[in-house]
Write a structure and sequence with these properties.
Chain lengths: 189, 653
């Protein structure tokens, strides 16, 4: 299995953001630097009472470090902590690793920020679709409208649900919507 | 690109410099930028104020929360008046809060907020405030900023010398302004003198829950009781009240209550009162008063009518009360942080009187009395006075302290704040107010530990101070920096209703205790539903109960049929969100009540009585989310004799 070396600095970035919310921040200076060039908006709100939001859950998930790094590189963290409601189809690290060699590295380059943001946004749908919700969409023949304007088809085959060709392998309820973990990056047709 | 930006930058900077420059030498009142005053009240976007200010709304009946020094308004907490914005007094849960022995009262006149104290220092637990018109005292939680309790006071009228807190919040003390027949009875008004009485209430506070218990009332002569403050330090255990109308007049008071050269400050020894109560030396009087409590667990208020009160007749118990002669209808009754000086502000006098607690005790011990009023000993003015601030201004009203040995008094008639020194009694500074200042506030300025950085003056009249708004103008608060030798006016800001009186505390005392949301698992509301599967509609005769939930961005259920004209429909709505700052609202076309505004994890109820057949929409009234505009539903209303079955659904399921 391929390793994604490039994610490491971004994971560090994620940790810094986490640290900024808790006591004893070791990366305070660096975080301040980040904040200066890139306002985090609602993502900087310190809140230890609410249930975790989509971004916080993703940051806490080892299997999503590439996704989190990509979200941070695209600077769209604030979208994932917004009031929503939002459903995010969250590709695992393996899903990203399965892309052609060099794709992720390329997308993470600053000049590709917009392209990356568009790709990620295609994984987010306004509304709350958990497993039951997805099955209902399939049953009623409704497609899911994604934040980029694409409509993705939901297919149920026995116990398997796929959305835009990506298989849902887990579902997490968060404070501002739903995360459906998927096994593929959903690329445009 | 860069060059372009630079040019643009210069272009923008130049006029800005010009504006700043043009104000630099402005001087007078308008020189805020030049003097740096603007910076001193400027709290940058996203930054927090240093202090909370709790400013009563006077005739609005509410309590407004401001930040200091910015003067930004954060919340108007409904207390004694209904508030459609927050469904206070409209939701089934909060209706009982406004019950009294006179029935439901939708309004009052809120006057003197005071903060809970521990060892004479502000502790950030609760804020208390009095209703002046129909006598009541409220307790507001400083972790939810909601009114949690209201107790009515029997035998009282014009509940003005209230709601003042003893050093450890043992009691909230509330004195009557108007004396009345006790118990109330039908009698000629002109037989007032000697027959009317004044009741001073001592409300015990449970230290864990804050819950009230009207412990006892001291029944006093038929004077008017104006303001009060507790003793502290050595004088802990005493409570001091200014009185006027010691003439006991009952008509044309502006003349007839101003005849005596001196009225009194009444000193009540409440530790002595506690002993009497413990010994059973009291009279139980039949009466009626409402006690309303909001329970955070069931999220509902209940109202109970209590039937009796323990009373102590001040005339009968030696040692319970003494009268301290004080010039000319004193208003403010303020005790310095050490507890030694009791300052009386004779509102028709040009001078302030400071009594000495030590001298008072000495006079009492040596029984140096100058007669009595209805058996209550009157002390000799010359024996107890510590000093007089001579000719300080016109119409002294209220004094607070900075903790550095200075006192600050408002003067209503001469529209100014005067700074003077304790013990030397000399005037140090004076600053005009705009206009006709009533009370003032220094955070902690009526406690053992003032934070003497800012002073807020509360003005009754603004005339030309703001953009005019027709005949009715905003009243105002003015912020002064008092950290230096001279007071400096920094800013003024309009207020809600009449900013009658205020209390303040450092933000750090209150911020850490904030409730962010209500945990669903701790929601014990009897009509709560905790998930969409349990939502339902039940009919019981003509009563229909809708058990509904909200979560971004839909109601469950959102289609309801089988409702009939003449039904009484209860919407019990639980907000399933567990996310900070995500309330949902709901209202129904034609509902004769307000919207609900439901916090995360909370359940609230409104009643709708459909009058017409048809299909009627309801919607979310709080802009909750990106799909807020889609958050709506329908109720089908059929004729009384129809047999449309009761059913409900979400997304057809």
């Amino acid at each position: 299995m391929k390793k994604i070396v490039i994610t490491i600095p971004f994971i560090a970035l994620g940790l810094m953001i986490l640290c900024a919310c808790g006591p004893g921040s070791q990366a305070a200076e660096e975080t301040a630097e980040v904040a200066e060039t890139h306002p985090l908006g609602q993502a900087s709100v310190s809140d230890d009472v609410s249930e975790k939001n989509i971004l916080q859950v993703a940051i806490g998930s080892d299997a999503h470090s590439t996704l989190v790094a990509a979200v941070q590189a695209a600077q769209i963290e604030h979208v994932l902590v917004n009031a929503g409601p939002l459903t995010v189809f969250a590709p695992t690290n393996d899903a990203f690793a399965a892309l052609p060699e060099g794709t992720v590295e390329d997308l993470l380059k600053p000049e590709n920020k917009q392209t990356l943001a568009t790709i990620l946004t295609r994984h987010a749908a306004p509304g709350s679709f958990n497993v039951e919700g997805l099955k209902k969409e399939a049953r009623k023949g409704r497609k899911i409208y994604m934040a980029t304007g694409d409509y993705l088809e939901v297919i149920v085959d026995g116990e398997d649900i796929t959305v835009g060709g990506a298989k849902v392998i887990a579902t997490v309820q968060t404070s501002n919507g739903i995360i459906n973990v998927v096994d593929k990056v959903i690329l445009p047709n | 690109m860069n060059t372009y930006k630079k040019i643009l930058g210069y272009a923008l900077t130049l006029p800005l410099l010009f504006v700043v420059g043009s104000c630099g030498q402005g001087g007078g009142n308008g020189g805020a930028l030049g003097s740096g005053n603007a910076e001193r009240v400027y709290v940058a976007p996203g930054e927090h104020d240093e202090f909370y200010g709790f400013i009563s709304g006077g005739f609005s009946g509410q309590l407004a929360v401001y930040g200091l020094p910015s003067g930004r308004l954060f919340k108007v907490i409904p207390v004694f008046s209904v508030d459609a914005e927050k469904a206070y007094g409209f939701s089934e849960e909060t209706k009982p809060m406004l019950e009294t022995s006179f029935g439901t009262i939708p309004w009052d006149d809120s006057h003197h907020p005071d903060l809970s104290q521990t060892n004479g220092e502000i502790d950030g637990r609760w804020c208390f405030i009095n209703a002046n018109n129909t006598p009541r005292i409220a307790r507001i939680s400083l972790s939810t900023f909601e009114t949690e309790e209201i107790i009515e006071l029997p035998n009282s009228a014009g509940n003005h010398s209230s709601s003042f807190v003893t050093e450890n919040t043992e009691y909230i003390v509330a004195g009557t302004r108007f004396s009345v027949p006790i118990p109330q009875r039908d009698m000629p008004i002109d037989e007032y003198k000697g027959n009317f009485k004044g009741a001073i209430s001592f409300i015990e506070v449970d230290q864990e829950t804050g819950r009230f218990d009207l412990s006892f009332q001291v029944i006093m002569p038929g004077f008017d009781y104006d303001l009060a403050h507790p003793g502290r330090g050595a004088s802990h255990g005493w409570m001091f009240f200014t009185t006027y109308n010691t003439e006991e007049a009952n008509t044309l008071m502006e003349v007839n209550a101003s005849q005596n050269d001196k009225d009194f400050i009444a000193a009540i020894n409440w530790k002595k009162a506690e002993e009497l109560i413990a010994n059973g030396d009291f009279e139980t009087m039949a009466t009626e008063y409402a006690h309303n409590v909001y329970d955070e667990s069931t999220q509902m208020a209940t109202s109970t009518i209590k039937k009796e009160v323990r009373t102590l007749d001040a005339s009968k118990y030696p040692g319970l009360v003494y009268l301290l002669p004080t010039p000319k209808s004193p208003h403010g009754c303020d005790v310095d942080p050490s507890g030694e000086y009791i300052i009386g502000s004779g509102k028709l006098s040009a001078s302030l009187t400071a009594h000495s607690f030590t001298k008072m005790i000495d006079a009492i011990e040596n029984e140096k009395f100058d007669g009595d009023a209805y058996g209550i000993p009157i002390l000799n003015y010359d024996d107890i006075v510590a000093g007089v601030v001579q000719q300080a201004g016109l119409g002294p009203l209220h004094t607070e302290f900075d903790g550095r040995g200075n006192a600050y008094t408002t003067f209503f008639i001469s529209s100014e704040v005067v700074k003077w020194k304790l013990e030397t009694w000399e005037v140090l500074d004076r600053a005009p107010t705009y206009y006709s200042v009533g009370h003032l506030m220094i955070p902690g300025g009526n406690s053992r530990k003032p934070w003497g950085k800012y002073l807020v003056a509360l003005n009754k009249i603004t005339k030309d101070r703001y953009l005019p708004t027709g005949p009715e103008l905003a009243q105002s608060a003015q912020l002064y920096d008092i950290s230096g030798d001279k007071m400096q006016l920094l800013s003024d800001f309009p207020t809600v209703g009449e900013p009658h009186y205020a209390a303040g505390a450092p933000a750090d005392l209150i911020k850490p205790n904030q409730v962010k949301l209500y945990k669903l698992e701790e929601n014990n509301h009897p009509h709560a539903v905790k998930n969409e599967k349990d939502t339902r509609v039940e009919r019981n005769g003509r009563e229909v109960h809708i058990y509904m939930t909200t979560i971004r961005s839909h109601f469950a259920p959102d289609n309801i049929e089988g409702i009939k004209v003449g039904d009484k429909v209860y919407f019990h709505v639980t907000n399933l969100e567990q996310d900070y700052d995500v309330p949902h609202g709901i209202s129904m076309i034609g509902a004769n009540t307000s919207e609900l505004l439901i916090m995360p994890g909370q359940t609230e109820t409104f009643v709708w009585e459909p009058k017409k057949e048809g299909v009627w929409p309801f919607y979310c009234t709080d802009f909750c989310s990106a799909l807020h505009q889609e958050m709506q539903g329908y109720v089908r209303v059929s004729a009384r004799n129809s047999n449309v079955p009761l059913k409900w659904s979400l997304d057809g399921e």
